[in-house]
Design brief:
The chain is an alpha/beta fold. The chain has 15 helices and nine strands. The protein binds iron/sulfur cluster (SF4). The site of iron/sulfur cluster has 12 residues, from loops.
């Protein structure tokens, strides 16, 4: 018998989910209703065992990867006014800003100086910035630095297209040609319009979000997928989200990773309370088990804090994400965690794993260190 299935049996009886456990252990895909049952299953350890089994099947070595990257929030001006967002300022607001190019270059220089490779440049949906602004900025960045631009969101891409009177695919092709390498999954929130209408009524619909991701993947840009849970949604909304991501991945194979993170309520119009660590671990585990066609699952230490992120490595995660260097969007909603490269590696090691640096394509980077 496979030792992993032995450990699964030893950890608990999987009471009430024996049939799902059997599917997971034999490599059979679980169904939507199975996912719903896992969300309701009270024994968190059972979920950890199954998620860890899936993780070890995909990543037998106990390596946890991370990338040295930084966020650059080039503008906070945004007309979309999502109710869960504390970062934006409406056009004309005294605190609205657009960073000068020189300020963006300085931030990238700081990143390059510590061996960083990934720039997550995202901002508000600024009604003044057309495609020429982004093409010019991307070209200037690429002419100066060897960095991977993992930047912009579906909402930004759609707005650039609309403002510039271009189709989505043409917009993406032009941005890609100018230096946009990949598209992060930001703005996925919950891919269910019942939820999207409540938390972000002016933002892209489920179909639009999936359509932009599909278009990006078609032209060869890798993307990631995220899920922001813990606002107004129910477990079936979360499952709808996971199902839609899995379906698109079956078609395109273009998602390199999935990241679940919880709604941060401080100073947001939506308000409310924070989802628990228990909920994070449960959601992480169910995502790992259900999304059998996505290779990498990333921790969200920015929203959960480093201690929960360490624990979550036992719930199916194999990646610690980006060092970030700077984070303004989640921190505007009351969460303030920062981490150095050394601290990130230390945390991965003390959790029992081997830290390895990667690039944005999840390829290991040879650092010369034994790590
Ligand atoms: S989440 Fe993005 S699109 Fe929504 S209000 Fe904030 S900055 Fe604007």
């Amino acid at each position: 018998m496979n030792p992993l299935s032995l450990s699964a049996k030893a950890a608990g009886p999987m009471q009430g989910i024996e049939d799902i456990a059997e599917k997971v252990l034999t490599g059979e895909r679980i169904a939507y209703d199975d996912g719903m049952r896992l969300f309701r299953h009270s024994n968190l350890t059972d979920l950890a065992v199954l998620a860890d089994f899936v993780r070890r099947r995909k990543h037998p070595e106990l390596i946890v990867t991370y990338v040295i990257g930084r966020n650059i929030n080039y503008t906070n001006i945004c007309w979309v006014r999502c109710k869960f967002c504390a970062f934006y300022r409406i056009p004309g607001h005294a605190e609205g800003y657009v960073l000068p190019h020189e300020a963006i270059f300085r931030k990238i220089e700081e990143l390059v100086a510590v061996g960083g490779t990934e720039v997550l440049m995202q901002g508000g949906v600024n009604p003044r910035l057309k495609i020429e602004y982004f093409e010019d900025l991307l070209r200037q960045i690429k002419a100066r630095y060897r960095v991977h631009m993992h930047s912009l969101s579906v909402a930004e891409v759609m707005h650039i297209a609309r403002l510039s009177k271009l189709g989505i695919e043409e917009t993406l092709r032009r941005l890609h040609a100018a230096g946009l390498d990949s598209l992060p999954g930001a703005g996925g929130e919950i891919l269910d319009d019942e939820v999207r209408r409540q938390i972000a009524p002016y933002k892209d619909t489920t179909e639009e979000w999936l359509g932009v991701m599909c278009a990006a993947q078609r032209i060869g840009m890798p993307t990631t997928a995220t899920m922001m849970y813990g606002s107004v949604e129910r477990p079936d909304h979360r499952m709808n989200h996971l199902q839609r991501v899995r379906d698109l991945q079956d078609e395109t194979g273009g998602f390199t990773a999935f990241i679940a993170w919880s709604f941060q309520p401080d100073d947001t119009e939506l308000g409310g309370s924070r989802a628990s660590a228990f909920d994070y671990l449960r959601t992480t585990a169910v995502s790992r088990i259900f999304l059998d066609n996505i290779d990498n699952m990333q921790a969200s230490w920015v929203t959960q804090g480093p201690k929960i992120a360490q624990v979550a490595l036992g719930y199916g995660l194999n990646d610690y994400g980006s060092t970030m260097m700077e984070e303004n969007v989640v921190s505007a909603a009351g969460t303030q965690f920062v981490m150095s490269i050394e601290e990130m590696e230390r945390q991965i090691r003390t959790a029992g794993y081997i830290p390895k640096r990667r690039d944005t394509y999840y390829r290991l980077v040879n650092t010369g260190a034994s790590g």
